[in-house]
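Retro notes (design track)

What went well: tokenization of the new backbones is finally stable.
What didn't: we kept losing track of which sequence belonged to which structure.
Fix going forward: every design gets posted as structure first, then sequence, in one message. First example under the new rule, 77 residues:
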């Protein structure tokens, strides 16, 4: 069971890192171009607004990965 928990912890950490990769991909897709699309003000507002949920999702997955990596413990750290 502990081997599976450590593997699940690695997967949760990968999801946390993948969240930031997805955020950077969306920032790249929504970047302003001179032939249309978002202007610079809307682009900056969007990047700030998207980082908040991306950080919350990543932080939750990293915390879950830490719990799974630690395994069963009598006293939580």
């Amino acid at each position: 069971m502990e081997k599976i928990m450590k593997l699940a912890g690695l997967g949760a950490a990968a999801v946390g890192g993948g969240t930031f990769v997805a955020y950077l991909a969306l920032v790249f897709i929504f970047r302003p171009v001179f032939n249309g699309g978002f202007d610079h003000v809307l682009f900056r507002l969007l990047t700030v607004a998207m980082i908040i949920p991306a950080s919350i999702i990543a932080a939750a997955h990293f915390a879950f990965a830490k719990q799974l990596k630690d395994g069963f413990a009598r006293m939580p750290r």
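Added context from the reviewer: DSSP finds two helices and no strands in the chain.
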